[in-house]
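REQUEST FORM: STRUCTURE PREDICTION
Request ID: SP-0412
Submitted by: Lab K.M.
Chain count: 1
Length (residues): 213
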Amino acid sequence: MHFTQNENQEKLNYLNLIGRFGVGLKDAMATFDRHDVGVEILSRHGRFTLGKSSKHAFEDVMTLHAYIEPPLDDEFEGTECILSNISEEDIQKAKRLFLLSTVQYGQILEKHGHTANIYINGVKVAAEEDFLYSYNITSLTKAMKKELNRERTNVGRTAYSSQILLENKEPRTTRLLVESLNRFTEGELPIELTWKDVAIHSYKLLNMLEDGL
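STATUS: Completed
RESULT:
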């Protein structure tokens, strides 16, 4: 048994999803190995680790392989990835690469530093100093296109980010947005909360989440 590269039919049916053939996992494994990071993957299908050995008919060439052992628990749900020999600093850097939330019109991204970035399909089109989040717009509505054509320098304002936030139902981003009101007296209210519809939506959603706890 070994990891294979193959087309994922589920991903082929959705054009906005990344990844198709399993190359990404192999690249990640090779990167970990190059930096001496240990990898162990556990699932009900087996225990997977990395190692180097020669290929048949190429005994003088050492290549990276996935070693597969029987599962530790054949009733295990999901997949657990265990990394070793990696610093907490590196883990935090990696976390900053992940999206906070994805909705119909785009993604909500964590802001680094004092400036938020506004992207359209991954291309930066504006910067905003007073935003709580950065945003990547992936689905343009007519209103968004009109705003973009009219004035590129303000594409991050109401035409884009507000629509994304009104679609957002992810607890963490909503809670962080509402909790930022605590800094109102310090003059640090993010632009997003100056939009009445976004503020009302965030409050209602947060109350619903807390009532469900």
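NOTES: The chain has a mean pLDDT of 77.
Reviewed by: T.R.
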